[in-house]
Amino acid sequence: MRALIQRVNYSKVIINGKIKSEIGHGLLILLGVENEDSEEDAIWLTSKVSGLRIFDDADGVMNVSVKDIGGEVMVISQFTLHANTKKGTRPSYIRAAKPDISVPLYKQFIQRIGDELGKKIATGEFGAYMKIDMENDGPVTIMIDSKNKNL
C-alpha cells in the first residue's frame, strides 16, 4: 500500500459538483493499493500514519501526530500512486489492484485509522471522478510505502 500524506489546513472532495466530505486541520491521505497488498499492509500503514509526528509542538518542532492534535483525516483512493513510468511517456497501472482486492483493503484502512483516532474519517467515493480542494500546510507531503517497511 502506498499513502501520499499531506498536512492540510482544510480539504474537501467534490463529486459531480457537490461536496461529498470535508475536513479542517489534519491529514489528506491519498491511498493506493497494489496486487500484492494484504491485511498486514493495512495494519502496518495505519499504525505508521496515525503516529506520524508531522505537526508542530509548542516549540514549533514537528513532533506531534494527528492523534495528538485531535486533527481530522480524509482518505481518498488513488490507484495512480502505483503508476509505472519506466518505459515511454504513458504510465502503466499494471501493479494497481483491481477493485476486488483494493476496495476491501481501502475500507479496512479507513476503519482502522478511524478506530485508532477515535473519530469518523472523511472519504471520497471509490472509483469516482473527484476534485480535491485543499490547502497544504507547510507544505508537508510524505510518501509511505508498506513494501519499504523493512528498509
Describe the structure.
With 151 residues, the chain is of the alpha/beta class. The chain has one domain: D-tyrosyl-tRNA(Tyr) deacylase (D-tyrosyl-trna(Tyr) Deacylase, Chain: A, 3-Layer(bba) Sandwich). It has three helices and eight strands. The chain has helices at 39-50, 66-69, 99-117, and strands at 2-15, 18-23, 26-32, 55-56, 62-64, 72-77, 122-123, 131-145. Strands 1, 2, 3, 6, 7 and 8 form a six-stranded mixed β-sheet that branches. The chain is globular and about 45 Å long.
Category from helices, strands and their pairing? alpha/beta
Tell me the β content.
Answer: 35-45%
The Cα radius of gyration reads 15 Å
CATH architectural type: 3-Layer(bba) Sandwich
Residue share in helices?
10-25%
Through-space gap between termini: 15 Å
Total domains, how many?
1
The CATH top-level class label: Alpha Beta
What sequence of helices (H) and strands (E) makes up the elements?
EEEHEEHEHEE
The CATH superfamily is known as D-tyrosyl-tRNA(Tyr) deacylase
Number of strands: 8
Uncertain runs: none
Mean pLDDT: 95
What is the global morphology? globular
Number of helices: 3
- Largest sheet: number of strands, sense, barrel closure: 6 strands, mixed
> Which fold name is given in CATH as the topology?
D-tyrosyl-trna(Tyr) Deacylase, Chain: A
